[in-house]
Amino acid sequence: MNRDFRGDVWSYRGLYIFLGLGIIFLKILPIPQTAGAWPYPDILLCLTMSWIIRRPEYLPTLLIAFMFLLTDLFLMRPPGLMAFGVLAGTEFLRNRIYILRELSLIGEWIVVSLVIILIFALTHVIAFLTVISTTNFGLEMIGALTSIAAYPLVVWVSNAFFKVHKPAMGEVDERGHRR
Fold this sequence. Notes:
By secondary structure, this protein is mostly helical. It has one domain. Helix content is about 65%, strand content about 0%.
């Protein structure tokens, strides 16, 4: 436990920003998608959900809001709409962190799946009620389903390559606070 916790947190925040900008860059590349193809999963959403459950101190609320507002602007979505939905979903998960840490991956996957579906449905309903042009609701739900399907892979990559894992039983930070 000789690691500097504060430096560790800031390095993971930097890694999140780097990964987020990379994902945004890949999304805005002009890659043709054939008609009838399924929408790509929202990897940034999966990454955010995974890290919130494992290490919420790595992702403060303002960082999540900034990344998803940036995503909204670059992808030409209504500014702040998806950011609002993701913030609502991540804060819901953050407030239930101690319950979610006790679940297996399957239980966690079910909870995250429900949150992802609610985020996509909430943003679509708000866009519809405010008369913002939206995409087909069915396509948005397929996008949610592909994100749900990609979640276990994102969890595995986060754990295997970036070492973002659930805290061990009794693990504390340098101040003695439970992680």
